[in-house]
Amino acid sequence: MPKVKRGRKEPPEGWDLIEPTLEELNRKMREAENESHEGKRKVEALWPIFRLHHQRSRYIYDIFYRRKAISRELYDYCLKEGYADANLIAKWKKTGYEKLCCLRCMQPRDTNYGTTCICRVPKDNLEEGKIIECLHCGCRGCASGS
């Protein structure tokens, strides 16, 4: 995930509406990056960063596609400046991927058996009462059918 930094271009109109929320998410991201990972498994140290990355991208997606509160120009600016993940948003627009937590969960090369991640399996197909966590991001289920 790239660091968010402003370019030299002036932000488009409407930036002042979303800037406080994005600044708050950036502050939380810095805290998560600097947080101690003592006593955690190696993969658990990255889980808060993945969650905040998802939250920031979902915020931009929701205000543009669902609430239609920002312009296309501002949306493109946010993608260009790294405030949201364009590839993740592109997957959210496809059927079956509306709740996708991260792009690593759908890549078969990152799993033991060459399939998608366990969090992509609908909860109806799993054992009752068994809690499953994704190894990559800590997600407990992002399948659209669950």
Automatic annotation (TrEMBL):
Keywords of this entry: Nucleus
One matching Pfam family: BUD31
Main localization (coarse): nucleus
Record's subcellular location: Nucleus
Gene Ontology biological process terms in this record: mRNA splicing, via spliceosome
Superkingdom of source: Eukaryota
Similarity annotation: Belongs to the BUD31 (G10) family.
PANTHER family in UniProt: PROTEIN BUD31 HOMOLOG (PTHR19411:SF0), PROTEIN BUD31-RELATED (PTHR19411)
InterPro entries: BUD31, BUD31/G10-rel_CS
GO cellular component, one term: spliceosomal complex
Species name: Rhizophlyctis rosea
Entry's transmembrane regions: none
Gene name tied to this protein: BUD31
Name this protein carries in UniProt: Component of the SF3b subcomplex of the U2 snRNP
